[in-house]
Design a protein that fits this description.
Elements: E1 3-9, E2 15-21, H1 25-34, E3 38-44, H2 59-74, H3 79-89, H4 93-107, H5 112-117, H6 125-137, H7 140-194, H8 203-215, H9 219-238, H10 241-252, H11 257-278, H12 283-292, H13 297-311, H14 317-323, H15 328-340, H16 343-401
Antiparallel strand pairs: 1-2, 1-3
Helix pairs in contact: 2-3, 2-7, 3-4, 6-7, 7-8, 7-11, 7-16, 9-10, 11-12, 11-16, 12-13, 13-14, 14-15, 15-16
């Protein structure tokens, strides 16, 4: 009998986790519902059935599935027929299997949102909550279209951030590799030539040779081990709640990149909350989902505190303003949206504004970083070359003077 790991919520909203031995997911659901719990996820623990889907499905695959299913449902075809069509034409075999299982679960009597919730590696909370709201409101095709738009905007934002981060990382790595190659392999050959001069070398040259000797000794292995150890320690620390908060807070204070990351977080918060509220998800549930998808613990904590305040009767704009993480423009627009009953519209405008800000920041960052990196490469390589040719120039002046 397989063992299922579950995540559920009580009537008060408290999360509960545990395991149950049962013959099927349906029996696990029945047992949890008998306890008065609302099922969120059920997964086979250590079992073969879930092994092939251990990795998360790519967002691009989910986006394509959502857009196509929206078109199929809008055209009037039954949901089950649409799922069967998409399971046959999906290239990713793991995702095709998931779609087929969803189709079987829906055919067995489950709602579409319940079937989606059983596959969290493909469909996150935001997705299933919106689908559930669409089913309740009888607007499944509209919600699927909103989801596809949201996923497209999210993927576009990710591409912009990757393009901003990839170039400097690659270019800086090339600078390090070129400088290391010169110091480790070229400098020793010059050092052998300098040893025949019989004169004291200039200070910059001596320092460069010392660095070369240091990098070619066992101490380089110690340095590499120390770097790997530091990275591992940071990753372990980042898995703790305090560590995650401190590291994310540090990221937001980085020069240049900190402002970009803050704009990305605000854009993600606004777009996610706007999409959820527009599809009919209750504000408190929407805030819980936004907290889990914030991508930054600092903003997640601010959203969590805001949710507690809203639960206590406050308007959303007030706790967000108190957090100090959201600019006055954002909180005031949210406040106006709450008073006029157009919160989702205001959130959409905020998201569009910060998306354009992120695009401008990425373009400006790319144009700024390129000349800086070229200058850095010139300085590093030029310094090494000058240090190597100083003794030769010194010897030439002595010979010319003699």
């Amino acid at each position: 009998m397989p063992t299922f790991a579950y995540v559920a919520r009580s009537r008060t909203g408290a999360a509960q986790k545990g395991t149950i031995d049962a013959e099927s997911r349906q029996l696990v659901t029945q047992q949890l519902q008998a306890r008065g719990l609302t099922v969120e996820t059920i997964q086979v623990r250590g079992g073969i059935p879930g092994l092939s889907r251990a990795r998360r499905i790519k967002t691009t695959e989910v986006l394509l599935f959502t857009r196509q299913l929206s078109t199929i449902v809008n055209a009037g075809l039954p949901l089950l027929q649409g799922l069967d069509i998409l399971s046959e034409q999906t290239e990713d075999q793991r995702f095709a299997q998931i779609i087929q299982e969803i189709s079987e679960e829906v055919e067995g009597g489950e709602t579409f949102s319940e079937a989606l919730r059983r596959h969290p590696n493909a469909f996150p909370d935001l997705y299933t909550s919106m689908v559930r709201a669409g089913e309740a409101g009888g607007d499944l095709d509209g919600v699927l279209s909103q989801l596809a738009d949201y996923l497209e905007a999210t993927e576009d934002l990710k591409r912009r951030i990757k393009s901003a981060m990839t170039y400097p990382v690659v270019a800086f790595s090339m600078i390090i590799l070129i400088a290391s190659a010169l110091v480790i392999w070229v400098v020793p050959q010059f050092a052998e030539i300098f040893a025949t001069f019989g004169k004291q070398l200039p200070l910059p040259t001596r320092m460069l040779i010392e660095v070369s000797d240091w990098l070619r000794s066992w101490r380089l292995l110690v340095l590499i081990a120390a770097i790997i150890g530091a990275i591992f320690a940071i990753r372990v620390y980042g898995r703790t709640e305090t560590g995650r908060f401190n590291l994310d807070s540090l990221k937001l204070r980085l020069p240049v990149f900190g402002k970009l990351l803050r704009k990305v977080a605000i854009s993600r918060f606004s777009r996610t909350l706007s999409t959820l509220t527009r599809s009919g998800v209750a504000i408190l549930q929407a805030l819980e989902i936004v907290e889990r998808t914030a991508g930054n613990e600092v903003f997640a904590r601010a959203v969590r505190n805001a949710g507690d305040s809203v639960r206590g009767g406050e308007a959303l704009a007030e706790p967000l303003a108190r957090s100090g993480e959201f600019p006055a423009l954002v909180t005031r627009m949210i406040g106006v949206g709450e008073k006029t009953g157009a919160l989702e519209s205001m959130l959409g405008k905020i998201s569009d504004f910060y998306d354009s800000e992120v695009k401008a920041a990425v373009d400006g960052l790319t144009s700024l970083i390129e000349p800086i990196l070229i200058l850095m490469m010139g300085i590093v390589v030029g310094t090494i070359v000058v240090c190597l040719f100083l003794p030769i120039l010194q010897l030439s002046s002595v010979v010319a003077g003699g």
